[in-house]
Design a protein that fits this description.
- This protein is 16% helix and 29% strand.
- It is α/β, with parallel strands linked by helices.
- It contains 9 helices and 45 strands.
- The radius of gyration is 28 Å and the shape is globular.
- The protein folds into 3 domains: 242 residues, Immunoglobulin-like, CATH 2.60.40; 198 residues, Immunoglobulin-like; 341 residues, Glycosidases (TIM Barrel, Alpha-Beta Barrel).
- A hairpin with a 7-residue loop joins strand 36 and strand 37.
- The strands form 11 sheets. The protein has an 8-stranded parallel beta barrel. Strands 3, 4, 7, 8 and 9 form a 5-stranded antiparallel β-sheet that branches. It has a 4-stranded mixed β-sheet with strand order 1-24-23-20, with no helix packed on it.
Length: 832
């Protein structure tokens, strides 16, 4: 919602307040942030609907033995709405002996408690799990008086040294027996998500009995909890049936302080649909403002919002003019306010009041900024704050006429100073103000004051954005109409951030304007270490199940065909990852086992959501193919039965998914030894990103001739060998060297073209050249046009959240986008 023009002048005069009395050092946000004096009752402020009676829960924990340690153990009751690291409610536990501690705390029945243990003393630390990761949180579902027996596996300076086992199983809907994907499963501080087929694995669980919880991100299923006994090196089967929730309409009518007139008001909460990403984001927050539901402005101080919410769910929420941390509602005592609602069985109207946005005696700070005239009219402006590190950007408030406003009310009582910067569409670090460009700029400083401050700024130019007023020149071609069966596609890049999600619908609408009839999604899981072949979902880095389903639905609503191309994220360049991996027999067995789960999960995603095609293969996968080689030319050590393994996997994929299966072959490396199992797939997707020009300064005609040689050579031979339809995909960056030489990093080493994807540091050695990308696209499309046996063309590496004229392979905002518009609308027209 935008502020009405009639409110603009009054808004400028009204958004003024109070300021700071002290500063509080907020450290890294990945460990201890603050210690609060425990209240008598552990409970957020209830909503208008009364909370159920309270029950006392006893927490009993065993911690690793530490000799000669002057330690105490505390428990943090965590607030995922404000930020796990930013507002813990901390309680010191009672010592039983140097390894055992207890504490009794009351909670409303029905509460889902998020907590973790903390060691204080000579060396303070939040607990770690057996994988060497800091525990995000444990879950406990309060059904009555209860006892929780926990054990801490490790501390930051005391690694785990015991035996472990595994909990695994299948989770289904108790009414239909259908598998439930995307559930959060937790035990002993280890978290995972159920796959598309409802299966899950909690690996590395210490021996003993643990509390295991199944939690629905959006509350679609009632929370389930049970004990699970784990034995060394064994699997504990735990298959569950969860009861589906029924949804009711809850209307929230909210009155706010009169000093805010028409500013966008959001609800931040603990469920997926309330902005929670279930990820650890920049600065310790867990929600993204642009994903939160926005209330409708009714009058000068009243707003309303009706949500469909799951009956019986424990909802924690707050109202905010920013996110869960910035500009969120405060109590009259200057503390973060968290509300709690146990969603009733029937529709209900709730009337609530925000007391204040201000914290302590600090004064509000108003930021007003004018943006360049060439700012895309569909863009939103964001402001990003750095109090102890850059946090997630906040959408600003539009005043019209290229002017934007944001007034910061709190929590200035926790700060003495901060810095800020501006960016487009929440993409700070990519779509920046040129004056504060990059991943970690200094920003503009602000000292917190007792007096109101008003900053009047003007953005002179945007980084990577200087669109030409002249149209893109495209040499007219005699384009052969192929009809709607021709694949005219755009493939998104596999990088991901939760802030992208709110920009997917306008991105898909923009893709549709090119005349494209296909969009290729690239859902990712992540490899986190070199030594392990385990691949898993990392929230914040990989899209969650509902993210993917929402995007597929949006594309299909626009009548776009959808394909899914599963693509992992690596902790380093994938060539280096392969070379550094152990690659012994046990490692390869683990790799194939985990890759199988990744692929079958995506096959089920396609089947359940009526996706038209699933793409396997890719440049990163070459070492795992029969006779696989590393980038340095050495054998990868792939098992001798690799062909059989791949055939079995493709057969298994076909059991899960009946749509079209493509195999992506990178040119030229993937064509050196084409695996025989390609006879089992339906189409071939040939990927071009390697240089192919024979001249150092090629013209468009030169590029067309050179690319024709490639198509009439290896590509045609491959087509004839397998007699499969061929689709061409290209991802050439907009740099002068594109098509002439490889992309080189600062050490002059060749790197994939994806190395330039945002957000990434600039490569000064690469020269921006938008016209070279245009020439390549025109040339390749002209060649495709001349070869009737080529069934499609795809632009790869599209950056979804913002138009940029950077050096990357993405065409979003570049002249090459116009090339697709020219070709696609003509090539997929009906044949004459």
């Amino acid at each position: 919602m935008k502020i009405g023009r009639n409110h603009s002048s009054r808004l400028l005069s009204c958004l003024i307040g109070l300021s700071v009395t002290f500063s509080l050092f907020l450290s890294s946000c990945s460990d201890i942030v603050s210690t609060q004096t425990p209240p008598v009752v552990v409970s957020p402020v209830p909503s208008q609907t009364p909370l159920p009676p309270q029950a006392v829960v006893t927490f009993a924990v065993e911690v690793p033995s530490v000799k000669n340690s002057n330690q105490s153990i505390a428990i943090d009751i965590l607030d995922e709405v404000t930020g796990l690291a930013l507002n813990p409610n901390r309680f010191e536990m009672q010592t039983q002996d140097n390894q055992h501690y207890t504490l009794r705390l009351p909670f409303p029945i029905g509460s889902v408690v998020k907590y973790r243990y903390l060691r204080e003393g000579d060396s303070s630390s939040v607990e770690y799990n057996t994988h060497g990761d800091q525990v995000r949180y444990r879950l406990y579902y309060v059904t009555g008086t209860g006892l929780v027996n926990d054990n801490v596996a490790a501390w930051n300076n005391l690694p785990f040294t015991g035996a472990t086992g595994r909990i695994s199983g299948l989770v289904v809907n108790s009414s239909t027996n259908a598998p439930i994907p995307g559930l959060l499963m937790t035990a002993n501080g280890i978290q995972t998500f159920t796959n598309a087929d409802g299966t899950y694995n909690l690996e590395g669980i210490p021996t003993g009995t643990h509390n295991m919880v199944a939690y629905s991100l959006d509350g679609s299923y009632h929370t389930f909890q049970q004990g699970a006994n784990v034995e060394a090196n064994l699997n504990t089967p735990a298959s569950l049936k969860l009861t589906p929730s029924h949804f009711v309409n809850i209307t929230f009518n909210v009155s706010v302080p009169a000093d805010v007139v028409g500013a966008p008001l959001r609800m931040s909460g603990n469920l997926y649909q309330l902005g929670n990403t279930f990820a650890d984001l920049a600065g310790g927050v867990n929600s993204v403002a642009s994903r939160m539901p926005e209330l409708t402005f009714v009058s000068e101080n009243r707003y309303t919002l009706t949500l469909s919410l799951p009956s019986g769910a424990d909802i924690r929420y707050k109202y905010t003019l920013g996110d869960g941390f910035w500009n969120s509602e405060q109590t009259s005592a200057g503390q973060f306010r968290i509300r709690q609602l146990m969603v009733p069985e029937t529709d209900q109207v709730i009337d609530e009041k925000v007391d204040t946005w201000k914290s302590g005696s600090s004064a509000p700070i108003t930021f007003e900024v004018k943006v360049p005239d060439n700012t895309p009219p569909s863009d939103t402006l964001s402001i990003q704050f750095n109090p102890f590190g850059w946090m997630e950007p906040i959408p600003m408030w539009s005043l019209g006429n290229n002017r934007w406003l944001y007034t910061l009310y709190g929590p200035q009582n926790l700060l003495s100073s901060l810095s800020y910067r501006y960016c487009r569409n929440d993409q700070c670090g990519s779509a920046d103000d040129s004056a504060t460009q990059g991943l970690n700029p200094a920003g503009s400083p602000v000292n917190i004051s007792l007096l109101p401050q008003n900053f009047q700024d003007e953005i002179r130019s945007w980084a990577w954005w200087n669109p030409s007023s002249s149209p893109t020149t495209i040499v007219a071609a005699d384009i052969k109409p192929r009809g709607s069966s021709f694949v005219a596609g755009i493939e998104l890049q596999p990088n991901y951030h939760p802030s992208w999600q709110s920009h997917y619908l306008p991105m898909l609408q923009k893709i549709q304007t090119t005349g494209a009839n296909w969009v290729i999604l690239t859902p990712s899981w992540s490899y986190t270490t070199i030594s392990s072949a385990v691949i898993s979902i990392i929230p914040g880095q990989n899209p969650l199940w509902p993210d993917l389903v929402n995007t597929i639905d949006q594309a299909q609503d626009l009548k776009l065909n959808t394909a899914v191309f599963p693509t992992p994220i690596f902790p380093q360049l994938y060539d280096q990852w392969w070379e550094s991996s152990p690659r012994d027999s046990s490692w390869w067995q683990s790799w194939f086992d985990h890759y199988r789960v990744f692929i079958l999960n995506n096959a089920d995603l396609c089947a359940q959501n009526k996706v038209q095609a699933l793409i396997l293969g890719g440049d990163w996968l070459l070492p795992a193919l029969p006779g696989g080689l590393l980038k340095n030319g050495q054998p990868s050590g792939v098992p001798g039965d690799a062909d059989t393994r791949w055939r079995q996997l493709i057969a298994e994929v076909k059991q899960h998914y009946s749509g079209s299966i493509l195999w992506a072959i990178p040119y030229p490396d993937g064509m050196k030894t084409l695996p025989a199992f390609l006879s089992e797939v339906d189409q071939l997707y040939i990927l071009f990103s390697s240089p192919f020009a024979s001249k150092s300064s090629p013209t468009e005609q030169d590029l067309e001739v050179d690319f024709t040689h490639l198509i009439d050579g290896d590509v045609l031979l491959t087509h004839n060998l397998f007699n499969k339809p061929v689709i061409i995909g290209i991802d050439y960056p907009s740099i002068h060297q594109a098509a002439v030489e490889c992309v080189k990093d600062s050490t002059n080493t060749c790197v994939p073209s994806s190395f330039l994807d945002q957000p990434s540091p600039d490569l000064p050695g690469a020269t921006l050249d938008l016209q070279r990308q245009v020439d390549i696209y025109n040339a390749v499309l002209a060649v495709v046009n001349q070869h009737d046996w080529i069934s499609g063309f795809v632009s790869r590496g599209y950056y979804p959240p913002a138009a940029l004229q950077d050096k990357s392979r993405s065409i979003n905002g570049k002249p090459a986008f116009d090339v697709l518009w020219y070709w696609y609308s003509r090539i997929i027209t009906a044949k004459q």
